[in-house]
Amino acid sequence: MSDIRIEKVDKSFEKTGEVVRPLDLEIPAGQFVAFLGPSGCGKSTLLRMIAGLERPTHGRIQRDESDRISFVFQEPQLLPWRTVLENVRLPLELVDERSTQERNELSRQALIRVGLGEALDKMPRQLSGGMKMRVSLARALVTEPRILLLDEPFGALDEVTRYRLQEDLRSFWQAFRMTVIFVTHSMSEAAFLAERQIVFSGRPARVVADRQSPLGIQRGDALRLSPEFAGEVRELQQKFRSNEEYP
Amino acid sequence: MKSSMTSKLRFLIALIPLIVFGGILEALVQSGVVPLYILPSPSSVFVSLATDIQEFVSGFKSTAIGATLGLALSFGIGTTTAMALSLSETLRRAFLPYATFFQTVPIIALAPVLVIWFGFGRPTVVASAFIVSVFPIIANSMLGLQSADPALRDLFRIHGASKMKTLWKLQLPAALPAVFGGLRIASGLAVIGAVVGEFIAGGGLGEVVDAARTQQRLDKVFAAVLLSSLLGLILVVMTDFVSRLMLRSWYVVKDE
Questions:
Q1: Residue B21 Cα, gap to closest chain A Cα (Å)
Q2: What is the nearest CA distance from A108 to chain B, expressed in angstroms?
Q3: Predicted TM-score (pTM) of this structure
Q4: ipTM of the complex
Q5: Which of A29, A102, B44, B86 makes a 20 to 30 Å CA pair with A109?
Q6: Apex CA A89: angle with CA A83 and CA A91, to 5°?
Q7: A158 and A60 assigned to the same domain
Q8: In a domain? residue A72
Q9: Residue A141 falls inside a structural domain
Q10: Final residue in a domain of this structure, among A120, A145, A170
Q11: Residue A108, C-beta contacts closer than 8 angstroms, at least 6 positions apart
């Protein structure tokens, strides 16, 4: 397991022009980082480059190629013709050589971890939005990734469900200590989840702030109402608004 | 789809135009306004059906076999071709333009050539049914194979899935509804192809139509046309039934 090093990386698309300004970043192994920025600023493109789904126009991204990566999308992206268990099992079917029995067992455990131990044989269409996202998380965790990338995964959920899933994600990170990069445009989400927040400007993305969170490791529901949490959110808000787009 | 009408009522409503237009046609022909060699009266069509019933039944069977064989061949070759084309961009660029070109070749012009290649009889009929029905299956299957959500393709890429695994586990199941859509169109076309083949190669309802036409027996021509439409309808309903069965096991609840 290694650090992720982003060296002089920029990205331009033919149609939209420059999306990410030349950028240097280092993300130590096992860190929980939030990429915070306005919608459409290019932070998702940066995440996709780290995942290897896009190639940087210039520069390079260094990481240990043997580190397993999982990606959680904005939508749950489940296969509608597979049961919940079969959906979670998918990444195991694609790569490793374990027996079906072992795969099923690992998938079952991953589903129990996200609180869906009872829904193994349900079809995706029978689930609520929050449950679908839980299945999507279980599918990302089942390979025991060393790098977990999430692209605004909770944006479409109601607040109560979102809070629950944020707390669960924190506990998964505490249990496995993988590197987590979480893309969001919500300041309170970035403050609650991450050990480090990197704030981006509007497109093309440029780092306007890079800060370590003073909040402790244990973060529960009570934290959300505490003055120190409010102070954190305010701090991020100021960085966010220092963008020229938010005068 | 839910409707407030009962199925009986819906059936009755669909019968009204048939009775009205049939009645008008019958009256026009009976009164001599329209001569018999232009349009046969509905009653004469049914009389013809009844008198030559054996000829019609054996023709219907023969056309049904020809069309079904052609359709089955189309399904097998069409889906395989689509899979091969979707796996390789080189193949796609090399062959797709020709597939589109051949799609526009009129089968009626090609049928005599088919007789030269395959002789009189069933092989020509099957080939004719195949040629007109294979392209919608290729086109729809190709479309279906590309229809999976880009994010799902990304998911497969991130987990290092091979092209074959992506095809089997993502593209094929995602393509099923489109493939069945193509099969539905193809089943109607296969009957047309089979009848056209029979015009030239003999046998089936096509031969009945051709023979009756030269004898100016319009009642018999229309009876045969009616039967070939019925055959197309039966094939379409059958593919609908099979596709609904298949798609249910793919998409709907397994524990119900």
A1: 47
A2: 17
A3: 0.82
A4: 0.91
A5: A29
A6: 130
A7: yes
A8: no
A9: yes
A10: A145
A11: A85, A117, A120
